[in-house]
Write a structure and sequence with these properties.
Blueprint lengths: L1 H9 L5 H16 L4 H18 L2 H12 L7 H6 L5 E5 L11 H4 L2 H16 L4 E5 L9 H11 L7 E4 L5 H12 L4 E6 L3 H10 L4 E6 L18 H23 L1
Parallel strand pairs: 1-2, 1-4, 2-3, 4-5
Helix pairs in contact: 2-3, 4-11, 10-11
Length: about 260
Amino acid sequence: MIFYVLKKIITPFFYPLSVIILLFIVGFLNLRRSSRRLGRIFIVIGMALLVLSSLEPITDLIVEKLETKYPPITEEAIKKLSQVKYICVLGAGTQPDPDRPPNSQLTRGSLVRLIEAVRLQRRFPEARLILSGGAAFTNPPEAKLLSDVAETLAVAPNKIIIEAKSKDTSEQAQLIKSIVQNEPVIVVTSAIHMPRSLMLFKLSGIQAIPAPTDYLTAQVPPNPIKRFFPSPDSLFNLQAAIHEYLGIAWIKIFR
């Protein structure tokens, strides 16, 4: 648990906004001293990084490299797949509030992943849904909320397996391996998260079939003009990509 908390504390320091704020702080501190020229340089670099990190055409280039590594499971692709026994959903966080319905307590990522898994389960009616996600800082466990929403989407309770102990993707892979054994499993997660997830699943000896969803980029932008204006969404997408690249680097170095 200590190692998990340390990862959660250290990782945000590498996010674009954290780096930009640090550049601004260093810059303004130097403006108050004799090294004003150095301070201006830090501020200009921070401003340039803020603009570049907020432009969709630039951030999309980084995000797309992750999102396009594995194709989605289309209706045509389903016809070519053999029957599977398991479809796994990797949780993407919750916003627990007992006064709200379960679907409002899931983050956008978790809800989109679950909907994709339910779609696939309709095509593979014999398959069981493995809903994965524990509760590191909040309750109830994410898998329990996923299960509640899955049942409202007409998934039979006997078709649901709850894995509510894992705190991160690495633990999810290990615990799911104990459930599926040597059976192939469809892994449903966000497209940007799929490359890192597949690396961990393969290291755990799982025959994983990728089913990416929850795309952050679009082949046909809904508003092409907006793409050339700074956007907080682009900054968020870049942060998500950096998070994944850091995770992939960690796996390659330490696993």
